[in-house]
């Protein structure tokens, strides 16, 4: 059995948060030696850690010469490296697997001590894919918050009316992406899972990609709402997208809707243990390509955004984007317990695009949809 | 001039956020070669990056063989390493300074390519200490939100009344730490700078250290409110603490208040360019030790928490704890432009403690207090 080492804080490292399910803002060392967990921790955190991981071995700063180092006058960074080095010596290990993000300064010190360190993505990704009950509860809470946020966004859109090419509110002023975002974020936060400020409220007017969207929203064109709230208790995420049109639905948008609905169903129906992310992505690409659209698989045409130029989705858990990979590089087969977001969509110059995104929990023989929200384009 | 390399996302890496002031959730490569910035970025982010760093060199995924790698079937992690390797080759560098948190997997690959990488804390810490105007504006906004949050907390406490040893609300039910936290977090969020769920509302009943605090609050004992909101626009933080007592003030608490006020003033008055964090910490320790209290400098007595067993504070910016170090290991002299939180306090068994925390901006000849809130123990 290989030893494991992590060095980070639980806000920045989802891998560490999975092992120590607490919010801890200052970095610390976590180890697993012959399957037994250990941490190097200071007095401020040790009781909290012991409470969530009963039986964990806690090496206190005092056990690795904290006071002596404090008095020696070495800078804090060197002091931390020295304490980590001594703690690892106390653990009595000569090799360890570390996550790919393991900090170089700590690695250089431990290797200089003679430790063999091997960064490996899969070891830690596999551990995260097996979610704890608390993490799964957190994903469900975040998903409920997402639905509340989407309902709030839909209500704001429903109250708007077309005025020429744009939407206006009851008082005649333009409806802005910011108004919709504020309403949905308030609803998510009220449900215990705030959504970050860059959740997407955007049409073709706002542009393509990871632009959050600002300014007036159009009448008769698709408006995508893509939001990802995070459960405050566990740090688990959800992710959800719907597309709305206020005003007349053009044939182009109806055609997109029909195709995206088919691609979405194809991917959802194919989701089960054993299928790879690449194969799942292909199930959506097949639908789009058969209808003459470009996909990431065929490559873009003149316009880099046109068609389905992104992956099908991604795993969701303590990170909003995590394993399994659901794009062309997704070699790993799905396993029961995976939580994935599937989000096929189309994009067309001058029109924008329709996209839907649901969370699926992979079960022993298929997938359970965690998202409970209609797909109607009319809010 | 040394070259710099960073590889992270801007949510996890404040160092990268300082260079690319945007929220970007997926990791990417940043380089500075002969003072000129460059990034390796995908289509989804390139326009946003170009908008905030005009003139930055953008190496697109397509420029480093994205499609060919996609078709080669290598896992995403290896594909990313290969693209980073090719991008660094295009930059034509043979050595670089990296931050201590530089991911080991990327470092191992670049070193295998022949690149000399040196992790260094100070290089990047210095860059962060020189805050941009936007970052400083963000800190000020977060600080205003903190004051609004503190006022909301004080209002909840003011409305409570002692009932035996605890506080009760108007309806006769116990006042809980959770009630106070909810009020202050709502106020911070309404001011554009949400505070995380683990901000501290705690008395001696709730315990010492980084425990956020839950359950009933006591009458006649100090209740510490320590909150750290983050400005949503810039990602900059503030940090602020006040201590309140509802009910009769004991002599022990009044004595703590008098001493902490003196230690606080001593540290604030000593804050100026040139003084080290260790010296600033000492200015507060001097006051406490002269009155017979233990400090982190003298070491703890029987009770590890008793006295002033922590550092004076810390720098504040894109991280809530960052350089300069204001504890015994604080060797670096302060410089004009530093933003620091000073938070001296005392802790006594059976009583709890009084602590105040303000933000200071170090100026050319002293320090400007950014916090605008009274220190009264009576809310």
Automatic annotation (TrEMBL), chains A, B:
Entry-linked SUPFAM superfamilies: Creatinase/aminopeptidase (SSF55920)
GO molecular-function terms, A-Z: aminopeptidase activity
Span of domain Peptidase M24: 138-364
Regions that span the bilayer: none
A UniProt-annotated Pfam family: Peptidase_M24
Assigned keywords, A-Z: Aminopeptidase, Hydrolase, Protease
InterPro entries: Creatinase/aminopeptidase-like, Pept_M24, Peptidase_M24B
Cross-referenced Gene3D superfamilies: Creatinase/methionine aminopeptidase superfamily
Keyword Protease appears in the UniProt entry: yes
Protein name according to UniProt: Aminopeptidase P family protein
């Amino acid at each position: 059995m290989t030893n494991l080492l992590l060095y980070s804080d639980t806000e920045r490292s989802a891998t560490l948060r999975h092992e120590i399910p607490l919010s801890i803002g200052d970095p610390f060392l976590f180890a697993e030696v012959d399957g037994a967990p250990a941490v190097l921790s200071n007095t401020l955190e040790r009781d909290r850690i012991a409470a969530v991981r009963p039986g964990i071995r806690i090496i206190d700063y005092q056990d690795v010469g904290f006071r002596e180092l404090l008095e020696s006058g070495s800078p804090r960074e060197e002091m931390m490296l020295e304490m980590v080095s001594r703690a690892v010596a106390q653990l009595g290990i000569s090799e360890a697997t570390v996550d790919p993000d393991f900090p170089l300064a700590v690695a250089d010190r431990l290797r200089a001590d003679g430790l063999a360190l091997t960064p490996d993505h899969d070891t830690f990704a596999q551990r995260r894919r097996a979610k704890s009950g608390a993490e799964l509860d957190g994903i469900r809470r975040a998903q409920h918050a997402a639905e509340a946020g989407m309902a709030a966004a839909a209500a704001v859109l429903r109250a708007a009316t077309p005025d020429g090419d744009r939407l206006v509110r009851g008082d005649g002023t333009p409806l802005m992406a910011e108004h919709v975002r504020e309403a949905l974020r308030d609803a998510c936060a009220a449900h215990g899972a705030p959504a970050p400020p860059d959740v997407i409220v955007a049409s073709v007017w706002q542009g393509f990609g990871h632009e959050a969207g600002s300014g007036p929203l159009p009448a008769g064109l698709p408006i995508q709402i893509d939001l990802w709230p995070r459960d405050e208790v566990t740090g688990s995420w959800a992710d959800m997208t719907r597309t709305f049109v206020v005003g007349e639905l053009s044939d182009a948008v109806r055609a997109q809707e029909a195709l995206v609905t088919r691609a979405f169903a194809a991917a959802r129906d194919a989701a089960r243990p054993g299928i790879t992310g690449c194969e799942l992505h292909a199930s959506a690409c097949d639908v789009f390509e058969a209808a003459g659209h470009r996909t990431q698989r065929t490559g873009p045409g003149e316009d880099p955004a046109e068609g389905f130029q992104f992956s099908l989705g991604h795993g969701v858990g303590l990170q909003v984007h995590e394993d399994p990979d659901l794009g062309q590089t997704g070699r790993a087969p799905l396993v029961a317990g995976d939580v994935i977001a599937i989000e096929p969509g189309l994009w067309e110059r001058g029109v924008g695009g329709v996209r839907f995104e649901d969370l699926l929990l992979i079960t022993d023989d298929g997938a359970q949809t965690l998202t409970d929200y209609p797909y109607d384009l009319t809010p």
